[in-house]
Amino acid sequence: MKKIILGVIIVVVVLTLAVVLISASGNRIDVNSFSVSKLENKTTQVSGDVKAVNLKVRTASVNIKKGTQNKIEFQNIAPDQFEVQFKSGKLNLIQNDYSKHHLEVGKSAAITIVLKNGTDIKKLQVDQLNGTLKLNNLTVDNLLINHVNGTTLSNDLTVRNSGKLVKKNGKTSFTEFSSPGLKASVKTGTFRLNGTKKSNDYNDNKDDQFVINSGSGQVSVTTK
């Protein structure tokens, strides 16, 4: 029995050391594809008036915010990990194999999307499998988010018409939020509106609503 415990401890130590060394070397191992990638940082400038954003990522920390120019800042990404397209006012950022879980060792990607026209976006659509999603100082006509695992945060977010957040696991916190109406369904966890605990099936019955469907996790909304 002692030998088994000792063996487990040795394996854990070796794996931990391997993770530390891989991260320090600036590489990432994708166990699913048996590949090793050298990570890099880069910035992609976007020329033109961005009116719509479509983002599909597997594992990354994502921050979408208003700024002085249109650009995408990438950290810890592998070559050709993301495809960026901009055409007719629509910005597409898509990660390879974005809908499938991968076992990876090394630093996860971080993406910051800066939008000069951030307070006048017609449509923002996000499909994110893992990682934190932040939305800051944005105004959108229609917002659609499918966030499977991770924390969803927003500050100073306005949805003019309608939208929907579908969440499986993780905390959701919206501060300084505005929409014509609000509906929230929380399976496991609590829903708070302006600091007050509400029903886990909250509905203000407005014609146009932002709908939150959350599986497991706390949901908090503070309005403007």
Structure description:
- This protein is mainly beta.
- It has one domain: Pectate Lyase C-like (3 Solenoid), CATH 2.160.20.
- 10% of the residues lie in helices and 61% in strands.
- It contains one helix and 19 strands.
- It has one helix at residues 2-24; strands spanning 27-30, 35-38, 40-45, 52-66, 71-77, 82-87, 90-95, 104-105, 109-115, 121-130, 133-149, 152-169, 172-178, 182-188, 191-193, 196-198, 201-203, 210-216, 219-223.
- The protein has a 16-stranded mixed beta sheet that branches.
- Residues 11-15 have low confidence and may be disordered.
- This is Adhesin domain-containing protein.
Identify the notable features of this structure and list them briefly:
about 220 residues, mainly beta, Pectate Lyase C-like, 16-stranded mixed sheet, three-stranded antiparallel sheet, 1 helix, about 10% helix, globular
